[in-house]
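Recall from the previous lesson that a structure prediction takes nothing but the amino acid sequence as input. Here we apply that procedure to Zinc finger protein 682-like from Vanessa tameamea. The sequence below is the only information supplied.
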Amino acid sequence: MNVCRICLTLAVEKDISLLPDLLEEDTRTYSDIMLFCLGIQVQTESKLTSKLCETCFLNILSFYKFKTLALKNDEYLRSLQEKEQKTEVFLIDDIKKEESDNFLDDDIQRDDDFKLALDVKGENNLEELQSDDELLSVIKQLKYENTIGETKENEHVSPNKMKKIKRKKVKKELEKPNQMCEECGKTVRNLKEHMFQHKPLLIRKRYKCKACDKMFSSCSSRLKHYKIKHLGIKKHCDECNKAVVNLTSHRMVVHKTALLPYECVPCGRRFISKSLRDQHTLIHTKDRPHECDQCDKAFRSTIALTQHKRQVHDKEKTHLCQFCSKRFFKKYHLQIHIRSHSKERPYECPDCGKFFSTTSILKNHRLIHTDVKMFACELCDMTFCKPGYLRNHMICHTKEKRYSCKYCGLLFGRSDHRLRHERTSHERHILPAA
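The prediction returns the following tokens.
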């Protein structure tokens, strides 16, 4: 089994044997470290997995240092307590001895100790101390001041000071200039955290949901999932009667698009961020620099190329229909498919009153009611309101025939023409089975 020994995840980047090297421990082996931190006995010749994911590996390192520090400090505090008890016993015995002994040498030695204590404290006036009790109190005070000075260094910072430190860190993060990701072209504030999205699926899944077994690539996505799925925290929009997570951004993106700061020059559409605007402007260009290494298709962005590979070549379909057991790559595609079972068409065209199952179909339909035809043919003077109409029109210029009949092999330039041919020429003559 090539899984993590702690959390059983498939993301295994470290080996247990690396623990002593990173901790710089010469006396402990990796089995001693695992037993010391987690109470798990790891045998050297065992057939069980000896791999760790990066998260568990770092947690063991930090816990080892934390537990070692706690034991060391506890031993130090206990030694201070023993010293204090021994010092008190010694002082009491010394005082009794001084009271019973009246020799001059003992008095001189006591005076010398008295002066030494005063020199340490910085006071040389012998006349101010009248008795041995005052001497004992001075020595105790010096000892307590030393212990208090040492404990003050280990005191925790106050909560108010911690808040100020966190605010300064957040302010520094906000003052940092935005950085552009070379993989997808987006401008982000934290490039290091953003780069986890481009790592393989098994590596970037690092944060587990507290209520279920689902993994996420960032804490923000995990928190968003937890609020929506488990807590059901959503706000109601009065304009479209939808329940959304972020009502402010929903209103700005959907209902108040004129207030968005970034505008696309060719079509006038506005966006909430510069990266979304730049990604949209690729639609108006013919450049497709990202080619698939498994087929002849090309795409405008690496995100589209990655989705194409996962959906077409890797056959990744994780969303299952509960009615017909059909699988889909995206959850949105599953939701659209379920409407074919329920016959639900929630989106109405305000111009003609027709209902549609998706917003994209409604958006393409509404182009019919506009007089603006933005998509022009470069070989003739015809213009079209939809890009699909332009693609179908270009077949009359290229004379390309890619679609063949499955019955007779006749080639057609359009798939709907091939489908019409199959129905009229072949399928209507086929009698139903008895």
